[in-house]
Amino acid sequence: MNLAMAERLPPDTLHAEGLAWPLGAPEAQHARQVEGPAPLLGLAAVETRLGAHGFGPFTSSLRAGERVAILGPSGAGKSTLLKLMSGERAARRGELRFDGVPCARWALPALARRRAVLPQSFAVAFGLPVELVVSLGRVARDHDPGQTGIVASALALAQAAHLAGRRFDTLSGGEQARVQLARVFAQVWDEREALVLVDEPLAALDPGLQFELMDALQVFSAERGHALVAVLHDLNQALSGFERLWLMQQGQLIADLPANRHAVGALERLYGIGLRCVDGSDGGFAVITQRCVASNAEVPA
Length: 301
What we know:
Elements: H1 3-7, E1 13-16, E2 19-22, E3 41-50, E4 53-62, E5 67-71, H2 78-86, E6 93-98, E7 101-102, H3 108-114, E8 115-118, H4 130-135, H5 147-157, H6 173-187, E9 195-199, H7 207-224, E10 227-231, H8 235-241, E11 244-249, E12 252-258, H9 264-271, E13 274-279, E14 285-290
Parallel strand pairs: 5-10, 5-11, 8-9, 9-10
Antiparallel strand pairs: 1-2, 3-4, 3-6, 6-7, 11-12, 13-14
Helix pairs in contact: 5-6
């Protein structure tokens, strides 16, 4: 579907792989479940609850090497979905499969070698050395002769090599975030086709570091065939660095879209804002947020 065709569709339409659905249509959730290699992770009608709030059912999948950004307003359920995918939160209904096997049947050490998680918040109870915090990503391995070198390389990739020798509890929030990212790198450093789940990984970092570390995270995953799933608030990071966008609203996955210009209208409606596209010199584009004049104003095409 070209841009001219997309502009003639109703404003409440989402686009994926040349097809179009109304926002919230069930088919929009499954736009990217096409024939091909078996999925690395599959969710089949997965549901959970937090108090009186229900989340799901979630039905989707991703394959090794794919990059997915989860977007949505605060409280939409983005972190809850990520916790379901990691196994941190148990599903009340439905089934989660990793590499074709129900997650409940995976031995925890085996799963830990193939799945790394960077949560939104993290705490270390004691004043551990930085290198020891990073090496926690390797604890599932009984014999790990390369650990020292991998920890050093992971710190360097996370722009945190200069923090070696420091105590974790003396670091700033941004420095701690980089050390935790290094732990994720170390955990799946020598694996192929693993799953990397990160929740707002760059929120505490300066803009320049955000560019560098997002590039590092994407290249690291691509070189090893890892699937990368990130909860993000930065729309430009999602549009420029990921292939798919999972849009969340009120505990539901309402759409699964390619990360391109056709997704801009859906993002406007999701957040209730206007977005203006600006072309970049590299052939890409960025979006600039604009306040809508009124809540019922028509979103500009």
